[in-house]
Write a structure and sequence with these properties.
elongated, 4 helices
Length: 171
């Protein structure tokens, strides 16, 4: 019964991006004996299209003066480099250098996508009660804004986690 999951999802503000769902199941070889039950079940995954979510984040006026349009290097008066936001890091700087070498990318803006998840128990009645909410943010938003969430951390999906026993891999 997935009624509890639907109730949790329906309680989340939708914004401009509607929720969708798909059924997912294991598609690998299933052993004749000792197969885990999750290998034979189908699971519902709820998600929202990440493209309009990122567009909404890019267009959010709440981020004015807390948003980097390009990578940068910042230095203290002593000459020591200061690392503060994602776009001040070497990764952003190096990636932007790679993009400059591609003429089709000229005029484009680097928008790093940050994904995060944690386990949440939704209901004991579903028999499959562990879900991992998947959150999305963009690296252009300053860290102090992202840490305070301030609409910069958006729920992207609920990933169903099947119950299973740990089976050690033998090498």
């Amino acid at each position: 019964d997935h009624t509890d999951l639907h109730r949790v999802i329906d309680a989340i503000p939708l914004g401009d991006v509607p929720w969708k769902s798909i059924q997912a199941q294991y598609s690998g070889n299933i052993p004749d004996e000792g197969a885990a039950s999750w290998m034979r079940k189908s699971y519902e995954v709820w998600f929202r299209d990440p493209n309009p979510i990122v567009e909404n984040l890019l267009g959010n006026p709440d981020f004015n003066n807390h948003f980097d349009y390009m990578p940068y290097c910042e230095f203290k008066p002593s000459g020591q480099r200061r690392w503060e936001n994602m776009m001040s890091g070497n990764w952003a700087w190096n990636y932007a250098d790679m993009l400059v070498g591609d003429p089709s990318m000229h005029g484009a803006m680097l928008v790093p996508i940050i994904l995060g998840s944690n386990k949440t128990t939704v209901s004991v009645t579903t028999g499959q009660n562990d879900y991992y909410p998947l959150y999305l943010s963009i690296g252009n938003v300053h860290n102090n804004v992202r840490r305070a969430h301030q609409n910069s951390l958006v729920l992207l999906a609920f990933l169903a986690i099947p119950k299973s026993m740990f089976i050690p891999l033998l090498f």
